Amino acid sequence: MEIIVTGNRHSILDQYLAEIRDHRIQADPLRFRENLQRLGEIFAYEISKTLPYETREVITPLGVAAVPQLAVQPVLATILRAGLPMHQGMLRIFDHAENCFISAYRKYTEDHSFQIEFEYMSSPSLDGKVVILSDPMLASGLSMEISYHALLSKGTPGHIHLVSLIASRQGVDYLRDKIHDERVTLWLGAIDEGLNAKSYIVPGLGDAGDLAYGAKIDSK
Protein backbone atom coordinates (compact mmCIF):
# COMPACT_ATOMS: atom_id res chain seq x y z
CA MET A 1 0.00 0.00 0.00
CA GLU A 2 1.46 3.32 -1.09
CA ILE A 3 0.98 6.29 1.29
CA ILE A 4 0.93 9.87 -0.02
CA VAL A 5 0.72 12.89 2.32
CA THR A 6 -0.28 15.99 0.36
CA GLY A 7 -0.30 18.53 3.19
CA ASN A 8 2.49 20.79 4.47
CA ARG A 9 3.69 21.52 0.95
CA HIS A 10 2.70 25.20 0.89
CA SER A 11 -0.44 24.82 -1.21
CA ILE A 12 -3.98 26.12 -0.70
CA LEU A 13 -4.82 22.67 0.71
CA ASP A 14 -2.98 23.69 3.90
CA GLN A 15 -5.20 26.76 4.26
CA TYR A 16 -8.35 24.64 4.09
CA LEU A 17 -6.92 22.07 6.51
CA ALA A 18 -6.20 24.89 8.94
CA GLU A 19 -9.75 26.20 8.65
CA ILE A 20 -11.44 22.84 9.28
CA ARG A 21 -9.31 22.51 12.44
CA ASP A 22 -10.01 26.06 13.73
CA HIS A 23 -12.70 25.94 16.44
CA ARG A 24 -13.81 29.49 15.61
CA ILE A 25 -14.40 28.75 11.93
CA GLN A 26 -16.00 25.41 12.86
CA ALA A 27 -18.83 27.37 14.49
CA ASP A 28 -20.22 27.92 10.97
CA PRO A 29 -21.40 24.50 9.67
CA LEU A 30 -21.85 25.88 6.16
CA ARG A 31 -18.22 27.02 6.04
CA PHE A 32 -17.08 23.70 7.48
CA ARG A 33 -18.95 21.72 4.83
CA GLU A 34 -17.69 24.03 2.09
CA ASN A 35 -14.09 23.48 3.18
CA LEU A 36 -14.58 19.71 3.21
CA GLN A 37 -15.98 19.99 -0.31
CA ARG A 38 -13.02 22.11 -1.46
CA LEU A 39 -10.61 19.55 -0.04
CA GLY A 40 -12.48 16.79 -1.84
CA GLU A 41 -12.00 18.71 -5.09
CA ILE A 42 -8.26 19.09 -4.45
CA PHE A 43 -7.76 15.41 -3.71
CA ALA A 44 -9.81 14.48 -6.78
CA TYR A 45 -7.53 16.68 -8.90
CA GLU A 46 -4.40 15.07 -7.45
CA ILE A 47 -5.76 11.56 -8.00
CA SER A 48 -6.78 12.49 -11.55
CA LYS A 49 -3.06 12.72 -12.41
CA THR A 50 -2.72 8.98 -11.77
CA LEU A 51 -5.61 7.87 -14.00
CA PRO A 52 -5.37 6.64 -17.61
CA TYR A 53 -6.05 9.07 -20.46
CA GLU A 54 -6.56 8.74 -24.18
CA THR A 55 -6.31 11.40 -26.87
CA ARG A 56 -9.56 12.20 -28.63
CA GLU A 57 -10.50 14.73 -31.27
CA VAL A 58 -12.72 17.62 -30.22
CA ILE A 59 -14.40 19.79 -32.84
CA THR A 60 -14.16 23.49 -32.04
CA PRO A 61 -15.82 26.37 -33.95
CA LEU A 62 -12.51 26.82 -35.80
CA GLY A 63 -11.14 23.33 -36.28
CA VAL A 64 -10.25 20.07 -34.58
CA ALA A 65 -8.14 19.74 -31.42
CA ALA A 66 -6.51 16.53 -30.19
CA VAL A 67 -7.07 16.57 -26.42
CA PRO A 68 -6.24 14.01 -23.68
CA GLN A 69 -9.40 12.88 -21.86
CA LEU A 70 -10.11 10.36 -19.12
CA ALA A 71 -10.17 6.86 -20.54
CA VAL A 72 -12.35 5.59 -17.66
CA GLN A 73 -14.41 7.24 -14.95
CA PRO A 74 -13.75 6.27 -11.31
CA VAL A 75 -16.32 5.05 -8.82
CA LEU A 76 -16.64 7.48 -5.89
CA ALA A 77 -17.34 5.82 -2.55
CA THR A 78 -17.82 7.37 0.87
CA ILE A 79 -18.70 6.45 4.44
CA LEU A 80 -21.88 8.06 5.73
CA ARG A 81 -22.38 10.68 7.06
CA ALA A 82 -19.17 12.65 7.55
CA GLY A 83 -17.86 11.76 4.10
CA LEU A 84 -20.72 13.37 2.17
CA PRO A 85 -19.20 16.87 1.70
CA MET A 86 -15.88 15.44 0.48
CA HIS A 87 -17.78 13.09 -1.80
CA GLN A 88 -19.70 16.01 -3.29
CA GLY A 89 -16.44 17.86 -3.92
CA MET A 90 -15.00 14.87 -5.74
CA LEU A 91 -18.21 14.48 -7.73
CA ARG A 92 -17.83 18.06 -8.95
CA ILE A 93 -14.49 17.03 -10.48
CA PHE A 94 -15.44 13.54 -11.65
CA ASP A 95 -18.94 14.55 -12.70
CA HIS A 96 -19.58 11.39 -14.73
CA ALA A 97 -18.50 9.02 -11.96
CA GLU A 98 -20.54 6.16 -10.56
CA ASN A 99 -21.18 6.30 -6.82
CA CYS A 100 -21.05 4.02 -3.80
CA PHE A 101 -22.30 4.70 -0.27
CA ILE A 102 -21.35 2.77 2.87
CA SER A 103 -23.16 2.96 6.21
CA ALA A 104 -20.76 2.26 9.07
CA TYR A 105 -20.63 3.73 12.56
CA ARG A 106 -19.10 3.38 16.01
CA LYS A 107 -21.19 1.34 18.47
CA TYR A 108 -20.03 2.04 22.01
CA THR A 109 -20.15 -0.37 24.93
CA GLU A 110 -20.62 0.36 28.64
CA ASP A 111 -16.85 0.54 29.20
CA HIS A 112 -16.65 3.25 26.46
CA SER A 113 -14.88 0.97 23.99
CA PHE A 114 -16.47 0.56 20.58
CA GLN A 115 -16.78 -1.62 17.54
CA ILE A 116 -17.59 -0.61 13.99
CA GLU A 117 -21.06 -1.63 12.85
CA PHE A 118 -21.45 -2.12 9.09
CA GLU A 119 -25.11 -1.81 8.10
CA TYR A 120 -25.59 -1.12 4.41
CA MET A 121 -23.83 -0.56 1.11
CA SER A 122 -25.14 0.76 -2.21
CA SER A 123 -22.67 0.12 -5.01
CA PRO A 124 -22.30 -0.69 -8.70
CA SER A 125 -20.09 -3.57 -9.80
CA LEU A 126 -16.47 -2.68 -9.08
CA ASP A 127 -14.80 -5.22 -11.35
CA GLY A 128 -11.77 -3.67 -13.00
CA LYS A 129 -12.70 -0.13 -11.91
CA VAL A 130 -10.79 2.61 -10.13
CA VAL A 131 -12.45 3.29 -6.77
CA ILE A 132 -11.93 6.39 -4.61
CA LEU A 133 -13.11 5.87 -1.01
CA SER A 134 -13.22 9.07 1.08
CA ASP A 135 -13.71 9.68 4.80
CA PRO A 136 -12.49 12.91 6.45
CA MET A 137 -10.90 11.29 9.51
CA LEU A 138 -8.73 8.19 9.84
CA ALA A 139 -8.61 7.59 13.59
CA SER A 140 -8.36 3.93 14.63
CA GLY A 141 -8.45 2.77 11.01
CA LEU A 142 -11.27 0.29 11.68
CA SER A 143 -13.92 2.04 9.56
CA MET A 144 -11.60 2.34 6.58
CA GLU A 145 -10.50 -1.30 6.84
CA ILE A 146 -14.09 -2.58 7.05
CA SER A 147 -15.12 -0.35 4.14
CA TYR A 148 -12.16 -1.56 2.07
CA HIS A 149 -13.27 -5.17 2.53
CA ALA A 150 -16.87 -4.18 1.78
CA LEU A 151 -15.71 -2.78 -1.57
CA LEU A 152 -14.08 -6.10 -2.41
CA SER A 153 -17.44 -7.82 -1.95
CA LYS A 154 -18.70 -5.91 -5.03
CA GLY A 155 -15.99 -7.06 -7.42
CA THR A 156 -12.25 -6.86 -8.00
CA PRO A 157 -11.24 -3.21 -8.51
CA GLY A 158 -8.29 -2.32 -10.68
CA HIS A 159 -7.13 0.19 -8.05
CA ILE A 160 -8.48 1.63 -4.78
CA HIS A 161 -7.62 5.11 -3.55
CA LEU A 162 -8.34 5.65 0.18
CA VAL A 163 -8.60 9.35 1.08
CA SER A 164 -8.64 10.99 4.52
CA LEU A 165 -7.94 14.59 5.43
CA ILE A 166 -6.47 13.99 8.90
CA ALA A 167 -5.13 10.67 10.18
CA SER A 168 -3.65 9.45 13.42
CA ARG A 169 -0.30 7.73 13.37
CA GLN A 170 -1.97 4.68 14.95
CA GLY A 171 -4.60 4.55 12.20
CA VAL A 172 -1.99 4.72 9.46
CA ASP A 173 0.06 1.96 11.09
CA TYR A 174 -3.08 -0.15 11.53
CA LEU A 175 -3.97 0.06 7.84
CA ARG A 176 -0.38 -0.64 6.83
CA ASP A 177 -0.50 -3.83 8.92
CA LYS A 178 -3.96 -4.92 7.75
CA ILE A 179 -3.99 -4.05 4.04
CA HIS A 180 -1.29 -5.74 1.99
CA ASP A 181 -2.53 -4.80 -1.45
CA GLU A 182 -0.41 -3.18 -4.16
CA ARG A 183 -3.60 -1.88 -5.76
CA VAL A 184 -4.24 0.47 -2.80
CA THR A 185 -3.02 4.05 -2.37
CA LEU A 186 -3.68 5.92 0.88
CA TRP A 187 -3.95 9.70 0.40
CA LEU A 188 -3.73 11.94 3.49
CA GLY A 189 -3.73 15.65 4.20
CA ALA A 190 -1.93 15.40 7.55
CA ILE A 191 -0.88 12.84 10.15
CA ASP A 192 -1.35 13.67 13.84
CA GLU A 193 0.49 11.70 16.49
CA GLY A 194 -2.22 11.18 19.10
CA LEU A 195 -5.51 9.45 19.90
CA ASN A 196 -7.45 10.20 23.08
CA ALA A 197 -9.34 7.71 25.28
CA LYS A 198 -12.33 7.79 22.93
CA SER A 199 -10.11 7.21 19.86
CA TYR A 200 -10.53 10.75 18.55
CA ILE A 201 -7.51 12.22 16.79
CA VAL A 202 -5.46 14.75 18.79
CA PRO A 203 -5.16 17.59 17.92
CA GLY A 204 -7.42 16.57 15.01
CA LEU A 205 -10.55 18.66 14.64
CA GLY A 206 -13.29 16.93 16.64
CA ASP A 207 -16.22 15.00 15.17
CA ALA A 208 -16.44 15.86 11.46
CA GLY A 209 -19.97 14.48 11.11
CA ASP A 210 -21.29 16.54 14.02
CA LEU A 211 -19.55 19.69 12.79
CA ALA A 212 -21.02 19.27 9.33
CA TYR A 213 -24.53 18.12 10.19
CA GLY A 214 -25.21 18.60 13.90
CA ALA A 215 -24.76 16.56 17.05
CA LYS A 216 -26.10 13.01 17.27
CA ILE A 217 -26.89 10.49 19.98
CA ASP A 218 -24.10 7.91 20.01
CA SER A 219 -25.16 4.33 19.24
CA LYS A 220 -24.97 2.03 22.24
Low-confidence stretches: none
Beta-strand fraction estimate: 25-35%
Q: Which structural class best describes the helix and strand composition? A: alpha/beta
Radius of gyration based on Cα positions: 18 Å
What name does CATH use for the topology?
Answer: Rossmann fold
- Shape verdict: globular
Count, helices: 6
- How many separate domains make up the residues? 1
Number of strands: 12
Assigned CATH class: Alpha Beta
Instruction: Give a short account of the largest sheet.
Output: 8 strands, mixed
Distance between the termini: 33 Å
The helix fraction, in percent, is 25-40%
Helix and strand succession?
A: EHHEEEHEEEEHEHEEEH
Second CATH tier, the architecture = 3-Layer(aba) Sandwich
**What is the oligomer described by this structure?**
single chain
Provide the residue-averaged pLDDT: 93
Task: Kindly describe this structure.
Strands 1, 4, 5, 6, 7, 8, 9 and 10 form an 8-stranded mixed beta sheet that branches. The chain has a two-stranded antiparallel ribbon with strand order 2-3. By secondary structure, the chain is of the alpha/beta class. The protein has helices at about 10-20, 30-50, 85-95, 140-150, 170-180, 210-215, and strands at about 1-5, 55-60, 65-70, 75-80, 100-110, 115-120, 130-135, 135-140, 160-170, 185-190, 195, 200. The chain is about 30% helix and about 35% strand. It is built from 6 helices and 12 strands. The protein has a single domain (about 1-215), classed as Rossmann fold, CATH 3.40.50. Helix 1 (about 10-20) packs antiparallel against helix 2 (about 30-50).
